[in-house]
Amino acid sequence: MPDNIRNSTPRKPARDAAAEIARTVRDAAEAGRQTSRRDGEAVRLTTERASEAASRIAGNADEASQQVTKRSAEQVDHMVTGQFEASQEVTRHVQQNLDVLIQVGGVLAGGFQSLLREWTDYAQTAAQRNVDGVNSLLRARTLQDLASAQSDLLVSETQLLLNSSVRISEVTAGLARDAAQGIGNRTQAERR
Question: pTM (2 decimals)?
């Protein structure tokens, strides 16, 4: 496949989504911080006696809010990164499988063409031999000539069938070997 298709992974959309999530989390944290500060000031203004305690509580709440926000942002970032890496891995496997399918499909198409050619050659040769054999049978003048022509036709047809079967078997074995080799190469590449 072309490099531009292979390189067009979902990185940018995933990064954009991660950046949007991070912005949202930061905005929420900022809103939380602002709310905490306002609450802290309201408590401090309302009660002078508890001003020091309220200030500590607001500071602690702000720190806790920041920690929770930071942990949430890290978890979201980790989750998005994990999903992005998983989608890259799936895309890589799909690409490799498609490459193998294309390679094996080409091998099978060529092999089937060779098989068809062998069967066609057999059919043409068998038809010609049948015509020649029938002509020999028709030319026979004695019973012995007829038996000889029939025997020659049978031997010739049997020999042609066996020879063609050997060639067809060789083509089929080569086809299976080439297809298995393509799949084996994919397996070896995956192990590396």
Answer: 0.47
